[in-house]
Here is the input.
Amino acid sequence: MLRVGLTGGIGSGKSTVARALADLGAVVVDADAVAREVVEPGMPALTAIRERYGDAVFTADGGLDRPALGRVVFSDPSALADLEGITHPAIWRRTAELFEAAPDDAVLVHDMPLIVEKDMGTDYHLVVVVGVDAGERLARLVRDRGMTPDDARARIGAQADDDARRAAADIWLDNDGTRDHLQAEVRRLWAERLEPFNENLLHGIRARRPDVLTLSEPRDEWPAEAARLIARIQHALGERAVTVDHVGSTAVPGLVAKDVIDLQLGVRTLADADTPEFVEALGRSGFPRVGGSARDNAKDGSEWPKRFHGSADPGRVAHVHVREVDGPGYRWALGFRDWLRADAGAREEYAALKLELLAQGLTTEHYSDAKELWFDSVHERVTGHSPG
Here is the structure.
């Protein structure tokens, strides 16, 4: 089951995206609907809210006056924290029930406003953020929801800013345009990423780039993408992941590279990486095992064993190289990355080699093989480099 976290600031159009995904076949769990459900008349959380905030946040018929409660809590951090302490346990119990009821092969979308604020990105395979300029959101809240400008600003100010949302977003859906444009973007997202990701996840298939070699200019987003993948791996494995590092060319600022995020996962022993629990935890998190074992080639012809996992996400191809901490392959991967980061001449030399091989029209497999002689030639330069 693919788990998608859907979020966005108040007034962003997140609910419109959730409805469009539901129409396409997703199972949507609406956090706001769950939050309303747990404070319906007769529910324990409603009684606790009356005890904490008094009758002023209730309507004449005994129901919760949400606008009145919002004016209290969104201008007072301690009042907001108290409300969360009352409602969140009940919300999460009900949410867990709804998750459990979803079919195993579903695309499960959690429509959740506070994914960024609560640092919940590792709970999902993907985080989708619906983005709108803050000024436009303010206008929508005043025009469409009848808020005063001050109330709208307080609501917006209580949430994460766009910089934090962009850092958390695997997918950013721009909703500054028309509703038709947004819905077209949702359909494209479903067809090109969510459905195929779910199929790969269900069948343990890694996403791959085409065999035709292409190189990308350096991209500013590579480090942030790697950071999100690293956090998900660490969340899935806990202490079994001794280290997780961004390695390879996308970890070197300014270097042309295949658009693939390479990660090195350090384990105490490869036997740990072969346990069913380890393999299943990575697989459930979107990183299926590829084959039984793999290897790197040393300069002297010996083999450095490792294990290999790939991302099931067709929108973010990634390779996870599992190596024993402080083994020769482990040390080489970090040393090579750090040498390239520190030595501008080495970066230029490596980039020139890449572009020369690209011009030869090699496949990605032959490209990797063709670089081996150069790796051997720079071995002493890499191993003799002392970062810092």
